[in-house]
Amino acid sequence: MELTSLEQDMLAGEHGEGTALAMKVQVGTGKAFYAKRMVPITRAHVAASAQEGDVYWVTRLVAAGARCVISPTVNPSMDLRYVEGQLGPLTGEGRDRVEASNEAYRRIGATMTLSCTPEIEKNVPAFGEIVAFSESSATPYVNSVLGARTNRESSISALCAAVTGRVPEYGLLLDENRRGEVLVAVEATLKDDFDWSLLGYAYPQVYKGPEVPVFTGIDKRPTPEGFVQFGAELATSGAVAMYHVVGITPEAPTVEAALGGNAVKAHATITDADLDRVREQFSGDPGPIEFAMLGCPHLTIRQVGEIAALVGEKRFAVDTWILVSSLTLELAERMGFLSVIQRAGGHVIADTCMDIPGCWDAYYDRPGVTESPKCAFYCQVYGQRYAVRPLAQAVQAALAGEVV
Amino acid sequence: MSDQQYTCRPISEGSGEGEALLSTDALCFAMCDADTGCVLEKGHCLDGRSVAGKVLVMPTGKGSSVVQADGLYRLITKETAPAAVVIQTPEPVLVSTIIAMEVPLVDTVDPAFYDNVEEGDHIVVDAVAGTLVLRKKTPGGAAAKP
């Protein structure tokens, strides 16, 4: 890889040890993908998390003197004050990590959005813009729905990019790698956002390769939330960072445009049976639940409004947590949704992720409900037994205290 | 049987050796139990098997942008991480995570390696020189001593 003199100086430590460390990871990654050079970025999002590995990395960079050239937005950790107000004081390493993570990201110069949906608010790239986005649910949206360009950055590499202000040029930054190679005939019916979640989880089960898929047979544009959830599940079940939906996403006006001259390497078909298989995989056992955890990725104001409408005058039978961005929380208050949900005994909480080790112990080893296969998948390591239901059904389950 | 040496491309420099653990599925380190290194993912071909101290041979990585790093970091702190990783196709999250966490990683291994390697063989990965030495296990099971 050819580096400019500035980049060589960065790597050699002339801009500080922290920048050198960031460069080392980026140059190593660039070489792995045969990148020829580095290119500047104009935005970054770091999937910060109060998880050990991430805290280790950001703390190491801060200690080595790194500061961000491009201030990245960051993923949620936890609103400790709110959670402790409800569940009692948290003790131990989990709490310490939340504080250490927030402190380190502030010090490195991040913009403390603490939201996992930057691609729909607060950090929305334009078509063709080169950016470094981690958060695996945001990356496919940025590439596919917005037509901006990012590789599937890890929280580590996205932070490196924020520090150096550049990324190695490879993969999805290049035209030829954005074109589709797998033609996917979607024969399944997509009625609502949840069906897009199921489709996202099902595709990597049906076709395991890393090639960019081109989905055909879809005539109705999903909601923004549907697209967000689709990307989240594609990246949970597989490692898809870019897709095309013919007639809908901007680089796929036609099948030919989406393929861009590539020969079709494989065909796949997704039917209702594939969606049902995923539905079944995550259905859990019917019966009593002890909590509801909604918002992985964070729910939008529309979804919070839908929840408020379903709740009405009723009360939640179990602890119900609705995870949103700080902007959505503010809007929920302005629009009256917050008072409806709070009166029902529910919690709408900003800045918070359900996968913060050591901070949700109250619900470990317990049955719950969620709208998110991604949440159910990653939280199985905590012994949480989630039944996954479409949002409206999950809210009904939280009101009834059981899943049917 | 004599050692067989193959060429490979270093991605994350270092060296490591251990028993071969062969996976036909991509792996996310967060889906391993940190105390034992055992894979916890249902339906994964390594479900229940431990990556601790092994040379993990797999197609590529998968998983969300955070959990891969966290998973690997926890394995390293509990000394249950693989000794080295051999992949067929680089994947950005896996590559950047492994470089930052300083675990040896190679790809582009001589195709003959894949014809010869078997579960339980001993593999020595030199991710500086770009070589990989395969020592076949004896019929009794354990890898042959030099």
Number of strands of chain A: 16
**Beta-strand content of chain B:** 25-35%
Low-confidence stretches of chain A: none
First-last Cα distance of chain A = 57 Å
- Give the termini separation of chain B: 10 Å
**Helicity of chain A, in percent?**
40-55%
**Overall SS class of chain A:** alpha/beta
What is the H-and-E element order of chain B? EEEEHEHEHEE
- What do the pLDDT scores of chain B average to? 91
Task: Give the overall average pLDDT of chain A.
Answer: 96
| Strand arrangement, major sheet of chain A | 13-12-11-14-15
Biggest sheet statistics of chain A:
5 strands, parallel
**Main sheet summary of chain B:** 8 strands, mixed
Describe this structure in words.
The complex is a heterodimer of chains A (404) and B (146). With 404 residues, chain A is α/β, with parallel strands linked by helices. Chain A has 17 helices and 16 strands. In chain A, helix 1 (5-12) crosses helix 2 (17-32), helix 9 packs parallel to helix 10 (224-237) and helix 13 (301-311) crosses helix 15. The radius of gyration of chain A is 21 Å and the shape is globular. Chain B is an alpha/beta fold and 146 residues long. Chain B has a single domain (4-135), classed as Phosphohistidine domain (Glucose Oxidase, domain 1, 3-Layer(bba) Sandwich), CATH 3.50.30.10. Helix content of chain B is 18%, strand content 25%. The interface between A and B is large, with 45 and 35 residues.
